[in-house]
Fold each of these.
Amino acid sequence: MTAFSLDPARTAWCAELRTLAAEQLRPLAEKGEPGHVNRPLVAELGRLGLLTRLFTSGALDLCLMRESLAQTCTEAETALALQGLGAHPVHAYGTAAQRDRWLPGVRDGALVAAFALSEPGAGSDAAALALRAEPDPDGSGHWRLTGEKCWISNAPEADFYTVFARTVPGAGARGVTAFLVPADRPGLTGAPLDMLSPHPIGTLAFDAVPVTADDVLGEPDRGFRVAMHTLNLFRPSVGAFAVGMAQAALDATLAHTAGRDAFGGKLKDLQTVAHQVAEMALRTEAARLMVYAAAAAYDEGAPDVPKRAAMAKLLATETAQYVVDAAVQLHGARALSRGHLLEHLYREVRAPRIYEGASEVQRAVIAKELYREAPTRPDAAVEDQ
Ligand SMILES: Cc1cc2nc3c(=O)[nH]c(=O)nc-3n(C[C@H](O)[C@H](O)[C@H](O)COP(=O)(O)OP(=O)(O)OC[C@H]3O[C@@H](n4cnc5c(N)ncnc54)[C@H](O)[C@@H]3O)c2cc1C
């Protein structure tokens, strides 16, 4: 990739992904039940080798997969992303035994993963999480997990969960441990949630669920790093998902406004319409470039990844909301019919502004990084000139 465009091989790969999504994934997505894990779709993502790519690709290729799939089939995009989010901690921090047990099934789409960080009382402030990992009273060195997780994508139907639990009371981010918890552990139950987006999501309840040292991902009490490392990788790719949705809305709008008769011509002949479409394209392209740049910075190990990832996620998700809303407006009433692409995108586009760090949280990250990078003395910038 140059600073401004993808190389021809990546451009061709994106086109191939869009075709695969249209021809092989969308038919399976259409047969799925809203709010439930679509296992045939996950298995097809595995058969096509895309789930394996989750673990062999860098951040940029992850973004290209998410953008390309989102353009044609958001359900396939989300199923892919959730396998990555839930299983990345196992890939990056798991022991050989954990990786051998779980990752082949994740890669071939036979096992469904989930990432369980949020709780009813700890969303944006994830370090306030309260699900307790208490030492087993029998002195075995094992723990019991007790508490709740909420808004967990793929719950309660996933086969295993990366669960973040408090091992040191009152220690904030320093006292959290990541555990790999198989769904069939005694004491683990869950319930689906009915949300605006057509997304499998639910709650989890832990009633003294037994876990051992073999279930720890990474080191005890250092699980917050596992969560943040995973989110740093995925944050630009949420932006890529948003860019894919924005592009789909833009493409639909170009087709519609070019064909729709109005006032003795086509809608596109009205200058306000044409300028609105130009604005949608302008903002989508700006967001795309920022996402690619943030992902490339991640792959290069650049020092300013947190700031760039936050900027990319913020800009792209807010842009997609703007573009999808404008597309609805330019389509008129038909866009609001149940089952219309834009009705679907209108529901899909809202949640990414909240999850994996709400837009306000991204602004807080950007500001913190700016002040960290800035000269510490008020007069330093002037003196340095
Ligand atoms: C579709 C969907 C899927 C999800 N999937 C998962 C998942 O798989 N795993 C998981 O662990 N979680 C998941 N979540 C939960 C998600 O991560 C949380 O919703 C998110 O962290 C925000 O937490 P909250 O909803 O409790 O909002 P709160 O933290 O209560 O925040 C509410 C609002 O307050 C404002 N706000 C919060 N913090 C600040 C701040 N620092 N500065 C300024 N304003 C602020 C923002 O406007 C924010 O939207 C999912 C959520 C959704 C909607």
Note: The chain is about 55% helix and 15% strand.
Amino acid sequence: MNLLEAFLDLLFPPKCPFCGKVLEKPGICPACEKDLPWIEGREGLREGAGGLCCAGALWYEEKAREGLLRLKFQGASAAAEPMGELVARCAAEHFSGEFDTVTWVPVSRKRLRKRGYDQAELLARAACRRWDTQPVRLLEKVMDNPAQSGIHDAAARRANVLGVYDPVGDIARKRILLVDDICTTGATLTECVRVLEDAGAERVVCAVVALTRETSKKVHKQGKN
Ligand SMILES: [Zn+2]
């Protein structure tokens, strides 16, 4: 550790992204490592309509939900580092050798100005650090649509994201890993995959920190089974 890093560590000590506990080195605290709602095996791969293929590390419940809400709304952008590692792990488990480019589901410019960071970009950067590469911007959010979290009907969620993303840069024949924080109904990811494939991508697979359970409406509200 160099002097600047040591100094920054004093000012901003690493914290567990899920419970906020101060840690000696960046990562996930042992208690969370044990208690997080990890997804086992094939359940961690969601295949949906429109060719969606999405891997997730955790169920979007309990501590996973708290950590992701903190990442998104409380400015805890340092939490993206250990969470990005989870994305890298599950992408490697399910899609090894299937992608050569990494990108993310972007927020709009307006949202970026307000929040100061794009959480999915930070996750993609953190994941890419494990592979010694950099993510590439291939999508731009061109419309500020209402948040998906406020819309519960699946068809309305699909309609809400239709046409809000534009392709950017050279996409032709790329095999892409698309990173986001959560996959709920998959409407946003499905739309992004469609835009990338229309722009010539050969294949797009997705990886997120957390998936909601398919029967998730009740789970969501009660916080557990
Ligand atoms: Zn913790």
Note: The mean pLDDT is 89.
Amino acid sequence: MSWPGGSPSSGSGAGSGQRATVGAAAIEVSGLTKEFGRRTAVEDVSFSVARGEVFGFLGPNGAGKTTTVRILGTLIAPTAGSAVVAGIPLIRANEAEIRRRISIMPEAPGLYRRLTVTENLEFFARLYGLPDRQARMKEALDVVGLGDRAQDICGSLSKGLRQRVALARTLLNDPEVMFLDEPTSGLDPVAAHEVHGLINTLRQRGVTVFITTHRLDEAERLCDRVAILNTRLRTIGRPDELRHTLFSRSIAVTTAAPLGDPARVFTGLPAVQGWRADELSAGSTAGYVLTVSDPVRAAPEVTRALVAAGADVLSITEARHSLEDVYLELVEDQEGRSR
Ligand SMILES: Nc1ncnc2c1ncn2[C@@H]1O[C@H](COP(=O)(O)OP(=O)(O)OP(=O)(O)O)[C@@H](O)[C@H]1O
Ligand SMILES: [Mg+2]
């Protein structure tokens, strides 16, 4: 059984909002390591997740994301290290209490395809001994927008709709912390967008969401902070923070025609540390990329210098690095390692 459950939670229904826990952080992980025989899946990983935070866990295939989720979800024991989940120390004696306060949406939703949506939810609600089953099921289905599909056979639902049923199942026990393992894997953009909406609903309800994903745009849009893992933790921070710490800041300038002497225009400006011509500029226009200390200070300075040199400025913008750039920078040099 890979599904956490347990006896009644302190809430009175899915999303009832009662949050009776102790401790400051929702999740705290210290020196977590998991070995499967001679293979190390997760090595010396430490991080913490604040209550109500949407936290992204990124990393290539085999990086140890699901292993971490399974450890924090009390499904497997770590080889070394310690953790606090939903404010409760992760030790064997506390496992049942932790399971009451969390839920996991595993990589494979694991629904019974011959049962209806309601029968599936009922099965799991009974298995975990939840009270107020009808009310919880109705609220969970409403949250995921499946109120009118309750009597449909699960096998007849599209993949995206089944994903939503799986999400409804994770809501049944009114969790404080939700672990979503690649919740949008295989979904089309519309279905993925709907799941993002659901995650934002959970955020508004104060649920802590720990989400693993390969979709960097998704992490960038949804997550307050992200961690990039490749067996070991490579970095952690807000997406914009990571971009800034990893890459020098730059601004991109486009002019109607190439500058006669760009070095003379750009060299000596206090906010500009370096420049290069951008070979990708189109037609007769010319592009330049300037490395700057502070784009807000540099942009007017550069504009004045260009105008003084008689250039027709078409655009001047801060060049943005995406989270994808950060990710590739961090994991590419690890790609060759054995898993
Ligand atoms: N039960 C197990 N027995 C042996 N090895 C395992 C077991 N579970 C995971 N591993 C190994 O641990 C490593 C990490 O696996 P894990 O499933 O955590 O990766 P992941 O980051 O979730 O990858 P993916 O993006 O493919 O889902 C892999 O090398 C995997 O083969
Ligand atoms: Mg995985």
Note: The domain at 248-320 is CATH 3.30.70.260 (Alpha-Beta Plaits).
